Amino acid sequence: MLRCRLEPDSKEIVAAQGVMVSYQGHMDFAYQGSGGGMRMLKKFASGEGGSLMKVRGQGEVFFARQAHNIFLMELEGEAITLNTGNLLAFDGNLDWDIRSLGNVGVMSGGLFNLHIQGHGTIALTSHGQPMILDCSQQPTFVDPQAAICWSPNLTPTLKNDFKMSSLIGRGSGESFQLGFHGPGFVVIQPSEGVTPAGILG
């Protein structure tokens, strides 16, 4: 569970809708708009970024998602690309945008992901203990539902391992992996993901 303390002069928090489990004090929850322009068009087309809420007030608010592990990432001017299904919350001063994965998403079930950058904290969830993989030494392939986030300079490619044996006892989605190779990392979870209610996308 993520515990956040807010004061009237604090920066607001942006969170996924449906992940607030409790709060104490006085809180205001409001829909987080897209900000207009191209971001609005991409949100309409993708559904990504469509289930965010702004939280401000005085007191404490608690966020969680089905008792999944929570870990924090501190950005100091850097950026990160993430799977919105693993997003819990982030500081409201961070800039975010919807980015296309091109033909990767057509087969893996998600054409767009969220790109966040600036100075602040992001809270992400993992179905199990997360692991960081170095993609700089050799190609790294990840099930699309197991990828939590990755370095923004990495552009995933689609690898198709489809074989006739894949039709027996396996979901067809497991035949496709996201391939990463270059200076950077990808964070994975030890699960192909349980689709919880109230996630983004």
Describe the structure.
The protein is mainly β and 201 residues long. The protein contains 2 helices and 14 strands. Strands 1, 2, 3, 4, 5, 6, 7, 8, 9, 11 and 14 form an 11-stranded antiparallel beta sheet that branches. Strands 10-13-12 form a 3-stranded antiparallel beta sheet. 32% of the residues are buried. The model is unreliable at 36-49, 105-109, 168-173 and 195-201 (pLDDT under 50).
**Computed CA radius of gyration, to the nearest angstrom:** 17 Å
Q: What is the general shape?
A: elongated
Total count of helical runs of at least 4 residues? 2
The proportion of residues forming helix, as a percent range, comes to under 10%
Top keywords for this entry?
single chain, 201 residues, eleven-stranded antiparallel beta sheet, three-stranded antiparallel beta sheet, 14 strands, elongated, disordered C terminus
Short note summarizing the structure:
Helix content is 8%, strand content 48%.
Secondary structure blueprint with pairings:
Layout: E1 2-6, E2 13-16, E3 20-31, H1 37-46, E4 52-63, E5 69-82, E6 87-91, E7 95-100, H2 103-108, E8 112-126, E9 131-134, E10 140-142, E11 147-150, E12 157-160, E13 176-180, E14 185-188
Antiparallel strand pairs: 1-4, 2-4, 2-6, 3-4, 5-8, 5-11, 6-8, 7-8, 9-14, 10-13, 11-14, 12-13
